[in-house]
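User: Quick one: structure for sequence A, then sequence B.

Assistant: Sequence A:
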Amino acid sequence: MTLILAHRGFAAAYPENTMKSFMEAAKAGADGLELDVQMTKDGELVVIHDEKIDRTTDGTGFVKDYNLKDLRKFDAGFHQKTIVKKEPIPLLEEVLAWLSETDLVCNIELKNSIIPYEGMEEKVISMVRDFNLSEKIIISSFNHYSIVYSYRLAPEIEIAPLLSEGLYMPWIYAQSIRAKGFHPHWRAAPDEIVKAALESGIEVRPYTVNKDLELERLFKINCSAVITDDPAKAKTIKNKIKQA
């Protein structure tokens, strides 16, 4: 059955890409997480979607311009008034340490399309190996050069290209770069593309699937996974279809 991957954690109800959001996703029955990695001025890997901290924290400026200790002073739960406790931007290491105690899989998106963080691939791979998580991790990016490089460094860790638009026979492209799957925008994942890819042995995990009808459609055709902001809703719809 289709896996449910929580996009930036349980982002529909909790501050995205925070430990709170990841833990709540697990409680809601997600099979795994999707998260984003940027790098600080002092070379630390942190979990945050944007290159700047303005949208998701009470700070301003680029992640790359802060040392970790200063970056951790900001509150990533700032915009969600229901969260009383401060939520710092998590370290990737912190998330992986928690993840290693669970059964969850995890899609790590390398956010190196806009800022080419030097050495990011090596650092992520080293950390994944340190926690013995190679079999539970998928490395994705819109920077396909980066994931190909990741595969060359660590062929045991799965890679998946992110596709914002439709691609002709994407399963052939995935095979050509040694990816076992691809992650298209849900609009670029019509039934015929998903089915053809699955028949070719290539996994399809569309993002960000939040509409009821789209979730139903993808569950019904046994898509490999859905990446969604609301794992609780996805779980409810999945269970209904199972019972039908």
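Sequence B:
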Amino acid sequence: MKNTKLIFSIALIVIIFAIKPIANWVSEQWNVDLSLVVEQRRNFVIVALAWFLIILLRRIKRQVLKHYDITKEDNLKSRKLYTQFNILEKVIVFVIILTSIGLILLSFESIREIGVGIFASAGLAGIILGLSAQKVFGALMAGIQIALTQPFRIDDAVVVEGEWGWIEEINLTYVVVRIWDKRRLVLPSTYFLEKPFQNWTRSSADIIGTVFLYTDYNVPFDALREELKRILDNTDLWDKNVQVLQVTDSKEYTVETRILVSARNSPTAWDLRVHVREKMIDFIRENYPESLPRTRVVLTNPNTEKEA
């Protein structure tokens, strides 16, 4: 079933090359004039070859990519190849279609003469058209550049425009980001070359998650570290690599404590952060309620101050 289109396209090319004797035979047998079909044989060959090349290209891509599983945990190499093949496939298909259309149009004498006349007498219009298409070609070049340099890949976890999600599609002129709540953020390819964005899985799938706690100054930090260790030892979300609790800031009313924990990928890191935050807040509330953030107000007796 997978080879049906490929075999059919090859058979179609063979039939087109033999279309002249077939047309002559049909004309003799049924007295049908197929001269127009014979005259356009070249164009039929161009269309059939273009179709054959596109099908062959996609078949080669499938054969290569079936050896790389993008769903496994350590899928950096697979994502890299998927990104390269998907974008290069779109570039090659675009070139094939554009070239085929150009060759077909050039086969018509009237269209070719009109085109020559337009280019000869309307140079200014051509310049204006080129300027108006500058953004389109810029987007195309940006897509090709992304395929070659790969600032991100298929299924990379990114933060773009304040939204966290995964790269779902990389096309020639635009990129689709699947947001964590199943929305889709569509951005032009040039965006990723002109503006900064966060790529959480640029070099590997594992990631470090951050949790911030804000407590009163009298919170016992050693007890928090022991509780953090207990929480991580009892969850499968933690990959057992990073476990850090540090006091990172002291403000007017609270102390800022930062917790660093690691996970095997970004979705798991998100779940781990939520889990650790919830359990740490429960621990503080149940065991050290006096260490929750509070505002202190000192009341003084004016009479006592006067006596003093």
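The chain is about 55% helix and 15% strand. The radius of gyration is 33 Å.

User: Thanks, that's what I needed.
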